Each structure stands twice: as structure tokens, then as C-alpha cells.
């Protein structure tokens, strides 16, 4: 017996789950879900079967056909990363039903009270299961190696509606006896309840399981795309304009990478507490409202999540130790889509911003270089704690290096063959390298594949982009140190990306007075583009400029995206005015904590615990 994934109890001697049928009753007053999960295995099994759980109460395990109880136990030891093992003792069985109740503190779920929503009138709940949080909603083999199909019945209050990263079957009245062991019949069929049914017919890793329940509306923006959000006209209309070009991106993606396999590509704009820019849940990408910038530049996040439809969702990393197979490929694919839809300069700016972020994260891990490797060891490590730009940008650089070596036409053919060969599979780095060498003979003599995948830091044949606008922006940023502020005619055509790249390349050792003068001219602290605002606030904090503490506090209280929380809290606890800024960090987190998703709460707590 041996685990197949450092973040899962799933055992190599156990058959993998192939199908799950979920019945879920949403109890908003208690912030819990009463549920049942029927698991179907790839083959009958006798003996212990190990499942992952976190903060779940298990009430029964029954044989699917006879409903006779099956022996089970929850491990007495709770691992801080993996949670608890649910051990089910089977006797030549391939299917069983587990009934359970989630915790109000489920790490995957954020329950929002009415005041925390756009409409301020009805509650809202949504999921974030990546990397290892599906186990806090239902017991499962929570590893990307175990791909599952599923069906789900969600029982919710009638005034709310549900969406899932799955095909919607119907919205209907509850039916007697369908609750099974999920909850009491009286609860399931109570007045004012409806059932939303969904099915996912393509095998996905558990981290792509996703739903949201709230007062939702939508806009049609293409033949395959609806924009969903809370039913507020201001949000829906602005989002529809921002992402109007989505169908063109899908078509370009298909030209580059092959047919789009998921039928729909809908988008859900979540409340500001959503911890990521986007989450590539199949058929229903989840987005933060901070990507809506009014100039269509937020579509680059959509391009990234769309690219996952081929690299990440179709082909998935077998464990988080191979995360670059998801994110490096997707970053490459995103930039190819952006290049076609928005132009080479936009793609070059994205590469430049990524280069800067990659080098900063390599510096961040200088005391633990293991996490600067593409293929790394994560035993005893929480994947949320080591989330960085390394798998994205170093992975991109590796693939870009291969493209430069063999030429784009040859690399495009290789990519299409790679995707068609491994679609709906979960693979590791070794599998990719074997395929690469078989299909591009001699590539290992031209590129040091071992150095790129197993080496620390950044190989010398990585490549900083050479576009004219990128070079100009970096040069202008360096000149700021000696008092040269960009002229208004120089910034007249700048969008958020240009400002972001400029600010991130300004030396952090500039004077507070210089930072204040830059803001006085260009009002960067008030920018509606959070990439620009946060990059400026980081610069202000690093220069010891206390004038912006109130804007930092306001920003940390109005959004929960970790891309902004991580650098701002880090800058506060490491700032020039350390004691004052540390006090501010503690105070803001104490007041804002309940507005953050549990994953974001954990990340901020980790930052504060290291420095305070």
C-alpha cells in the first residue's frame, strides 16, 4: 500500500472512482450542506478503501443496492494539510453511498451573508476546490489522478438559482424519496425549495468540481457563452461588454489546439471575495470582478481560463508536483490566443510582466529552491502556501524555448498531437518528456531537459522578451530612480498593462516624495484597474510612504483576490516603517478576515505568522 499523491490518502492498491452521484441540500442559516455521495469504482474491491475528507461529519456508509451499512471509520488523526482519512471496508463491492454534513468552516466554500453581496438582499455560496479542497464538500479520492464523471441534484431556496461546471439538466420541484440518505424528507420537499439538476459526462479531476448558488442573472454574449453574475444590471452589462470577444477567442483556440471539447464556455463573475483572478472550471469559468476594467484587457484572464480547456482540463497534471503541466502550457496557450486576438505587442507585454513576476518569485524562494523547480517534491507542503509564478512562467519559458529551437510550425503540430494523445488523462512530467523526445528526436541534445524540469532557478537560455514597447517601458522605469517622470505624451496611449509593467520595474529604493509626485500627476492610487493600483501601492509601501496607508486598508477590505492580498500584506509586514505597518496589517486582517474566502484567510495568516 502506498499513496499515489503527496496531498491525498488515495492508495495505489485501491481502484479509482469513475462516477459520483451527489444529492445536496443547502442550509443557508447554518452555512452547511447535508448530502449524500454515491461512488462507483472502476472495479469491485475487498478490504479498506481510503477516501479524503476535511471537516466533514460522516453519518453513514451504505451498500448502494441493499442499503445495508458498510463498516467505516474516520482516522483519529487530522493532518493539517490532507485532513482526515475515511476508511470504508468493502466486500467485493464497486459502489456505495456516503451520507455527510459539511462544516461552516469548509475550506472550499464561502458562504456570503446578504450584506456581503452586490444586491444586499439574499445570501450566496460558491466553491473553490483547487488545489485540494473538494474533500471539504464530499468524501472523494481528491487527487487529479482520479478523474470522475458526476451527476448532482442541488436543493436550494426557490428565490435562488444554481450554476455548476456541468451541463444543466432541469430546474424543478423536489420529488418524494429522492433525497435518500442526504437529508430528512420533510426538509427536501419543504415549501419554497427547488431542485437544480446537473450532469458532467466527461471525466474531470475533483478540483474542477464547482457550483455557485445565489440570485443570479445572465447575458448572452455568443453562441457558446453566457455571462452569469449576481442579478445586478451594473455588473452584468459591464461584464458583457468586457467579454464580448469571447467567441472569437474560442475560434482562435480551436485553430491552434483542436476542437473545443466542452460544448459551452460560460463565465460566472463572482463577488469580490473570490480568491483568484479566474478558475478554469469546465463549461463555467469563475472570475473575479477585478478583471472587469472597461477596456477589454480583462479578456486576457478569460484567454488564460479558456486555454485551460485544452491544457489543464483535457490534459491534467497527475499531482500538484507537476503543476507546471497545467499552468506552463496554459500560459503559453493564452499568449498565443492573445497574440492573434489582441496583437503581438499585448502578448509581449504579458511576457514582460510574467518575466518580472517569475524573477521575484525565484527570489522569494531563495531559502527553499526546491519550489523553483518545475518538477518538485511537495511531501508535507500545502500547495496553497507555495503557489507562485514559477509553474506558470518558468513552464512558459521552457515551452517557448522548445518553440524557438524547432520553429513555430513544428511546435504547433507537436502541441496538437500532444493534446489529442493525452486528452482526458492525467500525466506526469516524465510522461511528457518521453513523448517530447519520441516526437522531436534529438531535442535532448539541443536543450538540457533535465536542467529545465529538475533544476533550480532559471536556465541561462531563458529569454526576456524584446518588443519595442517593453524595452521602452523598462527603460522609463529605470529612469524614474534619477527623477525622470514619464511625460503625459509618453503615457497617453498606456492601458493598465503598460502602467503595471512600468510600476513593477521602478526600483523599490525610490524616495517617498518621488512616489507621491508620480501619484499627484497620474492618480495611480485611485486607478479602477487593480493591477495598476496594487503595483503602485506596493511601490508606495516599499518607499516608506505612509500617506497611502488608508488606500491600502481600503483595497484590502474591498477585494479578496490573493494576487493583491499576498503582496500588500507582505509589503506591510516587511515595510520600512515596520512596527506601524505591522500593526496596520494585523488590524486590517482582523476586520477583513470574514470577507475573505477560507483559502485566502489561510494564506494571509501564513504571511502574518512568519513576520509578526
Task: Report on the architecture of this protein.
Helix 4 crosses helix 5 (324-342), helix 6 packs across helix 7 (390-406) and helix 16 packs parallel to helix 18. This protein is α+β, with helices and mostly antiparallel strands. Strands 1, 2, 3, 4, 5, 8, 10 and 11 form an 8-stranded mixed beta sheet that branches. A 5-stranded mixed beta sheet has the order 13-14-15-17-16, covered by helices on one side. It contains 20 helices and 19 strands. A hairpin with a 2-residue loop joins strand 13 (216-222) and strand 14 (225-230). The longest helix has 21 residues, at 344-364. The mean pLDDT is 96. Helices cover 38% and strands 22% of the residues. The chain has helices at 185-188, 233-242, 246-257, 299-307, 324-342, 344-364, 390-406, 408-422, 429-439, 443-446, 449-454, 468-480, 488-491, 496-505, 512-522, 530-542, 549-558, 562-573, 578-592, 598-611, and strands at 17-27, 32-53, 57-63, 72-74, 84-101, 109-112, 124-127, 148-157, 161-164, 167-172, 193-204, 211-214, 216-222, 225-230, 266-269, 278-279, 284-287, 315-317, 425-427.
Amino acid at each position: 500500500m502506498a499513496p499515489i499523491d503527496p496531498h491525498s490518502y488515495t492508495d495505489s492498491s485501491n481502484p479509482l472512482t469513475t462516477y459520483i452521484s451527489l444529492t445536496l441540500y443547502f442550509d443557508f442559516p447554518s452555512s452547511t450542506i447535508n448530502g449524500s455521495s454515491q461512488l462507483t469504482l472502476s472495479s469491485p474491491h475487498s478490504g479498506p478503501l481510503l477516501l479524503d475528507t476535511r471537516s466533514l461529519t460522516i453519518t453513514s456508509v451504505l451498500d448502494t443496492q441493499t442499503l445495508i451499512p458498510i463498516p467505516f471509520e474516520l482516522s483519529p488523526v487530522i493532518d493539517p494539510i490532507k485532513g482526515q482519512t475515511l476508511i470504508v471496508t468493502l466486500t467485493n463491492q464497486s459502489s456505495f453511498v456516503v451520507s455527510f454534513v459539511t462544516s461552516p468552516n469548509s475550506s472550499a466554500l464561502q458562504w456570503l451573508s446578504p450584506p456581503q453581496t452586490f444586491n444586499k438582499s439574499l445570501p450566496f455560496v460558491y466553491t473553490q476546490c483547487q488545489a485540494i479542497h473538494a474533500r471539504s464538500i464530499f468524501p472523494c479520492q481528491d487527487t487529479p489522478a482520479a478523474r470522475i464523471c458526476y451527476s448532482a441534484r442541488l436543493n436550494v431556496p426557490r428565490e435562488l438559482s444554481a450554476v455548476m461546471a456541468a451541463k444543466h439538466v432541469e430546474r424543478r420541484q423536489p420529488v418524494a424519496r429522492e433525497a435518500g440518505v442526504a437529508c430528512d424528507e420533510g426538509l427536501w420537499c419543504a415549501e419554497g425549495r427547488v431542485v437544480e439538476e446537473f450532469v458532467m459526462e466527461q471525466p474531470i479531476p475533483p478540483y474542477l468540481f464547482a457550483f455557485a448558488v445565489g440570485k443570479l442573472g445572465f447575458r448572452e454574449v455568443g453562441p457558446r457563452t453566457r455571462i452569469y453574475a449576481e442579478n445586478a444590471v451594473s455588473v452584468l452589462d459591464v461584464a458583457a461588454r468586457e467579454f464580448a470577444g469571447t467567441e472569437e477567442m474560442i475560434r482562435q483556440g480551436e485553430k491552434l489546439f483542436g476542437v473545443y471539447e466542452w460544448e459551452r464556455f460560460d463565465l460566472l463573475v463572482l463577488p469580490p471575495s473570490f480568491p483568484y483572478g479566474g478558475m478554469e472550471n469546465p463549461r463555467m469559468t469563475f472570475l473575479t470582478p477585478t478583471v472587469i476594467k472597461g477596456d477589454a484587457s480583462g479578456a486576457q484572464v478569460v484567454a488564460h481560463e479558456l486555454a485551460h480547456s485544452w491544457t489543464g482540463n483535457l490534459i491534467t497534471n497527475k499531482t500538484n508536483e507537476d503543476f507546471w503541466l497545467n499552468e506552463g502550457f496554459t500560459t503559453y496557450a493564452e499568449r498565443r490566443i492573445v497574440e492573434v486576438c489582441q496583437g503581438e505587442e499585448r502578448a509581449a507585454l504579458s511576457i514582460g510582466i510574467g518575466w518580472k513576476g517569475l524573477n521575484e518569485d525565484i527570489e522569494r524562494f531563495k531559502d527553499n529552491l526546491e519550489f523553483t523547480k518545475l518538477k518538485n517534491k511537495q511531501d508535507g507542503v500545502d500547495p496553497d502556501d507555495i503557489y507562485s509564478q514559477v509553474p506558470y512562467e518558468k513552464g512558459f519559458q521552457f515551452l517557448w524555448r522548445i518553440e524557438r529551437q524547432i520553429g513555430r510550425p513544428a511546435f504547433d503540430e507537436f502541441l496538437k498531437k500532444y493534446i489529442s494523445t493525452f486528452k482526458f488523462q492525467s500525466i506526469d512530467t516524465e510522461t511528457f518528456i518521453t513523448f517530447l523526445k519520441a516526437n522531436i528526436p534529438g531535442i535532448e541534445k539541443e536543450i538540457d531537459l533535465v536542467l529545465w524540469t529538475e533544476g533550480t532557478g532559471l536556465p541561462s537560455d531563458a529569454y526576456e522578451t524584446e518588443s519595442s514597447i517593453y524595452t521602452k517601458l523598462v527603460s522609463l522605469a529605470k529612469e524614474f530612480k534619477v527623477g525622470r517622470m514619464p511625460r503625459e505624451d509618453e503615457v497617453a496611449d498606456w492601458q493598465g498593462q503598460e502602467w503595471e509593467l512600468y510600476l513593477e520595474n521602478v526600483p523599490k529604493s525610490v524616495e517617498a516624495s518621488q512616489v507621491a509626485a508620480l501619484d499627484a500627476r497620474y492618480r495611480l492610487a485611485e486607478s479602477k484597474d487593480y493591477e495598476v493600483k496594487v503595483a503602485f501601492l506596493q511601490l508606495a509601501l516599499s518607499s516608506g510612504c505612509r500617506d497611502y496607508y488608508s488606500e491600502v486598508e481600503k483595497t484590502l477590505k474591498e477585494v479578496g483576490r490573493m494576487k493583491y492580498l499576498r503582496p500588500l500584506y507582505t509589503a506591510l509586514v516587511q515595510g520600512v516603517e515596520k512596527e506601524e505597518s505591522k500593526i496596520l496589517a494585523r488590524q486590517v486582517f482582523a476586520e477583513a478576515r470574514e470577507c475573505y474566502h477560507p483559502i485566502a484567510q489561510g494564506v494571509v495568516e501564513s504571511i502574518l505568522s512568519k513576520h509578526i
